[in-house]
Each structure stands twice: as structure tokens, then as C-alpha cells.
Amino acid sequence: MNPLVDISNAQAWFVDTTLRDGEQAAGVVFSEAERCGISHRLVSSGVRELEVGIPASGESARRQIHQVAEAVPGTWLLAWCRARRDDLAAAAQCPVQGVHLSFPVSNIHLRIWGKTHSWVLRTLAELTEEAAGMFDYVTVGAQDASRADRCFLLDFCHSVAESPALRLRLADTVGVLTPQSTQQLVTSSLHALAGKPVEIHAHNDLGMATANTIAAWQAGAKCLSTTVNGLGERAGNASFAEVATALRVACGCDTGLDLRRLCELGSYVAAASQRSLPGNTPVIGEGVFSHASGIHLTGLNRDASAYEAFPPDMVGHSPSRHFFSTQSGPATLREFAERGGLHLDPAALPALTDRLRAFCHHHRTMLSATDTLHLVTTLT
After folding, report:
1. Deepest in the core among 93, 185, 294, 341, taking most CB within 10 A?
2. Taking the chain (380 residues) in consecutive chunks of 10 residues, what is each chunk's mean pLDDT?
3. Best CA proximity match to 194, nearest among 154, 146, 149
4. 86: closest CA among 128, 50, 55?
5. Dihedrals φ, ψ of 74, to 5°?
6. Helix/strand/coil (H/E/C) assignment for every residue in the chain
7. Residue 112 phi/psi, 5° resolution?
8. 166 and 199 in contact (C-beta within 8 Å)?
9. Cβ(101)–Cβ(138) below 8 Å
10. HEC string of 244-292?
11. Strand 321-324 versus strand 367-368 pairing type
């Protein structure tokens, strides 16, 4: 196997970090069986590289990595390391193909970790050479790249280009990039890397992780770091389901992923992380294909694509659901009645609609087609 060849042949290459950055979310702890279950579902979806943990965290972390390796043979497994030799030694005890070396590059991170520009560049050259002799491939991370001095970041990119590293990860560690600044960052980094791939690792503190990841891909960052359900520290990371579906629907990119598995994968991780998904979660949320507005329902009956960007079965979602609510009109009531085999006097439709709207308003609810017809029979 050659990861560079695999990446070169892909239109988009996902590096899932649910088992590393995702599990760094406060209060999230996966069991060993859940880690294997997540890994298996990701690989079944078509993801070929998993960042599986931090070996230096201890023996339990290394044991978990061994179990994941047994669960998904043939998958590229990546271990996350600080720029330290003892971290490399810990990773060498694990059945991983690759190692990721993370370096502080912003002034604030350099200061809090007591490092200098010269230390970063010197250690980068030394450790990537050592790691290349220990693993099939090495990746390098620019931690807090979004706030780094641009001149130093370019020096860092040039050093990565001259090293044995396979690719550079640009980390928006505190989620302050915008799509425009993301594109600028990726473009300049790619130029300095002289042909080596860029990976974008976006955090969601300002709600732009998915948008920034798509912007990075459009600028040439083929490698995309995501987590299932956007799980991660603070506000989380770019969501796998959102990025994968946006690439297919908005960008016309054939990622080779089986998007039909997205809903089941999201539900599994939601249960394992004990973090339920809000109904309006993009792509896989329960409300994504729920409709109640009268105008929308009329349009959907004529052509579902009028108000749905993609069909629900594309992502493994349950079929669209139509409801009667305070925003529904006589046309919706007539449609529900016709489908249910109930004949309603056209002259009575406006009054019945008003009474159903009043019911929904009073109870702050909406009604399924079945419940709507049941209520109509009690009113007529």
C-alpha cells in the first residue's frame, strides 16, 4: 500500500479523527467495543484513513489502538504525537502505518509551550527523518496555523516540503478562519509545499468548520479532517456527514463514499458519545426531511426537489414526513384527506383548516396525516 498513491487517485481523501479529536470532547468516553464499531462503520462507508488516538496517553490507549487495528484490517491508521521522541516511541508500540507530528506554529502556542521558531524547524527536520524510518508514512501538523505569522508559516511549509513528510495538516485550532481566509491559507501553503498535499483540520467555534473545509478543498486541500457528528473539543470539528454530502451535492465531487450509511453512523456515534443530535442537524437530523409549511408541502407534492436539496435515501434517511401545522392551509388538508380516502366538502375546508390551526397553536404542536384525519373526523 502507498498512501500517497491512494490520495493522488482520490478526488477527496477523508482523515477521520473521531477516535482522537472527537473523543477529546469533554465528557465523551467510548468503550472499546464502541471504538471498534465506529471504525468498522467508517470503513464500511468508504473512509480509508483513521486517526486512532494518542499512544503517549498510556497503555490503555495503546491497547485500544490494537483492537481497532484488528477490527479494520487494511485501513490506514494514524497515531497522533507531540513533537517528542518519547511520543514516537509510544506510537512504535502500536500497529499503525502512520504517525502525525504536531508542532506549535502561532506565537501564542510557541509562547505557552516555551518553543522558538528555530526549535520548530530544527525538530521538524530531525523527527520527520527519524519517524520515516519507523513508519510507512509521516504527516506533520501546523497547530494553530490560522493564527500563525504568515512568514514563519511559509518557512514551516518549506521545511515540510524538504522533509520526508507525506503531507501538511493546517489546523484551525480555535476555529477563527473564514472561507475566504481558508482559501488564502491553503493556496499559499500549497505553493510553498511544492506538490505535497494539504490537509485541513477545521474547528467549529464560529460555526464555519464545514464551510471552511469545503473552501479548503476548493482551494486544493484534497485531505479533509472530519469527525462523525462534528464531535470534538468545545464546539467540535467539521462534520463528516456535512462535508461528504456537501461535496457530492454542492460541488459535484464523487468521493467514492457510501453516503447511504451516514444516518446509521451518526445515530451510532450519538448513542456512544451520549450526545443526542438536534433535530435540525444538517444532512442526518430528524427534521431535515420534515415539512409543515403549506406552500412547501404544495411544492413538494409537485416536485420533491423544490424544497429538498437531495433525496432522503441518498444519506440513509427515513422518507420525508409531511405535517399539518399552524402554517398549513386547505390544500394540505385536502391532500391528507385524499390520500386517506376521506371525502371532505370543499366548502367546509376553510373552517376545518382554521380549527386545526387553532388546535396546533393551542397545543404548540403539529399533526401527522393520520392524526390530522383522526381529528377531522371528531370535528365533522
Report:
1. 185
2. 78 97 96 97 97 97 97 96 98 97 98 98 98 97 98 98 98 98 98 96 98 98 98 97 98 96 98 95 94 87 90 95 91 88 87 92 92 86
3. 154
4. 55
5. 85, 0
6. CCHHHHHHHCCCEEEECCCCCHHHCCCCCCCHHHHHHHHHHHHHHCCCEEEEECHHHCHHHHHHHHHHHHHCCCCEEEEEEECCHHHHHHHCCCCCCEEEEEEECEHHHHHHCCCCHHHHHHHHHHHHHHHHCCCCEEEEEEECHHHECHHHHHHHHHHHHHCCCCEEEEEECCCCCCHHHHHHHHHHHHHHHCCCCEEEEEECCCCCHHHHHHHHHHCCCCEEEEEHHHCCCCCCECEHHHHHHHHHHCCCCCCCCCHHHHHHHHHHHHHHHCCCCCCCCCCCCHHHHEECCHHHHHHHHHCHHHCCCCCHHHHCCCCCEEEECCCCCHHHHHHHHHHCCCCCCHHHHHHHHHHHHHHHHHHCCCEEHHHHHHHHHHHC
7. -70, -25
8. no
9. yes
10. HHHHHHCCCCCCCCCHHHHHHHHHHHHHHHCCCCCCCCCCCCHHHHEEC
11. antiparallel
Instruction: Return d(Cα 151, Cα 104) in angstroms, integer.
Output: 15
Q: What is the pLDDT of residue 377?
A: 85
Cell of 241: 456527514
Paired sense of beta strands 98-104 and 76-82, if any: parallel
pTM listed for this prediction: 0.93
In the sheet that 321-324 helps form, which strands lie side by side, from edge to edge? 290-291, 321-324, 367-368
- Grid cell 468503550 is found at 31
pLDDT, residue 335, reads 87
Q: Supply φ then ψ for residue 52, to 5 degrees.
A: -105, 0
CB-count burial class (<10 Å; 0-12, 13-18, 19+) for 312: middle
d(CA 362, CA 359): 5
Pair 291, 301: CB distance under 8 Å:
no
d(Cα 231, Cα 216) in Å, to the nearest integer? 20
What cell numbers appear for 155 in the block?
518557512
